Amino acid sequence: MGRTVLSSLNESLHRMMGDDDRVIVLGEDLLDPYGGAFKVTKGLSTEFPERVWTTPISEAGFVGVATGMAMRGLRPVVEIMFGDFVLLAADQLINHAAKFRWMYGDRVDVPLVVRLPMGGRRGYGPTHSQTLEKHFLGVPGLVVVAVNPLIDPGELLETAVLKDDRPLLFIENKKMYARPVRAAIDGRIGALRVRRTEGDYPTVTAGFGGPQTAEATLVAYGGMVEIALAAAEEMLIEEERYVEVVVPTALNPFDVTPVLESLATTGRLVVCEEASAAAGFGAEVTAAVCDQGFDLLRAAPMRVAAKAVPIANAPPLEQAILPGQEDIVAALRKSLGGRGQSIRIATG
Known about the structure:
Blueprint: H1 5-19, E1 23-27, H2 44-47, E2 52-54, H3 59-71, E3 75-79, H4 90-97, H5 100-103, E4 113-118, E5 143-146, H6 153-163, E6 168-173, E7 188-189, E8 192-196, E9 204-207, E10 216-219, H7 225-239, E11 243-247, E12 250-252, H8 257-266, E13 269-276, H9 281-293, E14 302-306, H10 315-321, H11 325-335
Parallel strand pairs: 1-2, 1-3, 3-4, 4-6, 5-6, 10-11, 10-13, 13-14
Antiparallel strand pairs: 5-12, 7-8, 8-9, 9-11
Helix pairs in contact: 1-6, 3-4, 7-11
């Protein structure tokens, strides 16, 4: 099957630890033979036993320790076993790591990376299936980056760990670990035409036609990317309508420019996210578009998100709660003036 998101991340960690003694990995149950809950750290403790630390069950404790390491010149990589547990370390991240550079007059950096396996669709239930990064998107000084299969995740991780001197949340959708990495070749991934921005955390824009044929702009990140691409393909096959999918990697700070560039052609915006809609990423994208490109819109922006209830264990209930391909297609049809059905905006 080739390289997967999981193998890319694992190879990246092995490569960084082999090349740079400043890289320390810490978190719960990382030691071999277990190698972490999702096996991203498998093999590291065998190869680098002095620099892989298995910690007590205290997210606030080991994120605080890692913050101190970063301030003293190390490049710590923290694994939170399930992203849901990051809220236990919210004080360390929001009130400490994100503020120290300002509090100490720009005399200290905090190059801390916290890896967060997020998302549902695996039957883990209400406290192990959430997508919680939206609660950190408005924190000044805290970078939020989300992996997607259209950009090599290992390259993103190396950039975050070795080049970025800011505290950073690295969002890894759990369902994506087994997915193959789909790198663009000559501007294409299979039938998709692909373009990407420059910079450390690029935005990828993908579509089945050329930029000038697109009729709607669909924004998705992380675990929603492949679902969004499937919806775009369905719209082409069933409706003969071209949809451009804009995939940001950096969620905070967020650059709305690629979205505006797509809207200059399409005039129609749909944003999808796996979290609930209230105060979420879709709300931020919509607000940014209205602030900077309101005149580009030909229809009201639409959001597709999870229902505002805890995520169930039972697969049929989990599927009913989380947004799916059919919800995105319905929103696109409504935005394009077609036969939209009920659209999951999760207002209650």
